[in-house]
Amino acid sequence: MNSKNNIIKSNYHTHTYLCNHADGNVEDYVKKAIELGFSTLGMSDHAPFIFLKDRSVRMGIEDYPIYLKDLDDAIRKYSNQIKIYKGLEIEYFRSQKNHYKHLLETLDYLILGQHYVEINNRLMSVYDVRTLDQMKAYVKNVIEAIETGYFKFICHPDIFLLNLKEINPNDKEEIMYLSKLLIEAAEKNGVALEINANGIRRGKLIIKGEVRYQYPRKEFWELVSKSKVKVIISSDAHHPDLLFDEAMIEAYNFARHLGIEVEEELVID
Ligand SMILES: [Zn+2]
Ligand SMILES: [Zn+2]
Fold it and tell me: Tens digits of per-residue pLDDT, 78-110?
């Protein structure tokens, strides 16, 4: 693939080696983004979070100064070639509000990657969500996060539908209603929704002859196409080479087929 591209000028969802499941440091990504002709690169590694014990998928609090220094060094070195934003991807829990405020003192933005849902005071992985009640808990959690104003966009908002191979006709109305509530909250609060290329990288499923992704989920994004909510496409890159790959092109095609207009850049102050 030609490394210069004409369609993608930015990416705000980017992970480094510090999260323990990605490759490349900030500078590796910056160099790649410049090579691709990007005008903007937002780094958003998995945030340090003492509240969550999943150290294998996020940076430790002791690594955070390294992350910030890598970002500041890259900004100093490359600011005449590319705009670099300092961010983190993180889950939202009401009890942890001070943590977000604290992080935003040193960062340009946060993005919401709600990988856990709080149900009856216990945390459940979003990858295990299956029942309507669990989906409701996810949507409620995400809407609450949207309303705080801490987050620039919602990563893979449709991830709660991941385990539904087919949407049961009896549940369809309720699920579409939940999706609509989430979309409306994002629209009302000026928070963008993300079409996540990493979902596309997870591969395709064939359900009753129909080929589809685990996410992005068409039923969800059809509703988005009827709203005025801002939409962004992210690589969710876990390797510099994934900043612009086939999955990104597929993500753009997915949006185009549904008539969804995608933001080229986000306003980050
Ligand atoms: Zn990750
Ligand atoms: Zn991510």
Answer: 999 999 999 999 999 999 999 999 999 999 999
CA of 180 to the centre of ligand 2 (A): 23
Put simply, whether the predicted model's pTM sits higher than 0.85 gets the answer yes
- Give yes or no for residue 33 having a pLDDT over 50: yes
Dist. CA 156 → ligand 2 center (Å) = 9
In this prediction, residue 124 carries a pLDDT of 96
Task: Classify each residue of 171-200 as buried b or exposed e, where b means 16 or more C-beta atoms within 10 Å of its C-beta.
Answer: eeeebeebbbebbebbbeeebbbbbbbbbb
- What is the distance in A from the centroid of ligand 1 to the CA of 56? 10
Question: What's domain 10-257's superfamily in CATH?
Answer: Metal-dependent hydrolases (3.20.20.140)
> Which amino acid, one-letter code, is at 32?
K
3-class DSSP state of 193 = strand
Q: Using the mean position of ligand 1's atoms as its centre, give its distance from the Cα of residue 171 in Å.
A: 30
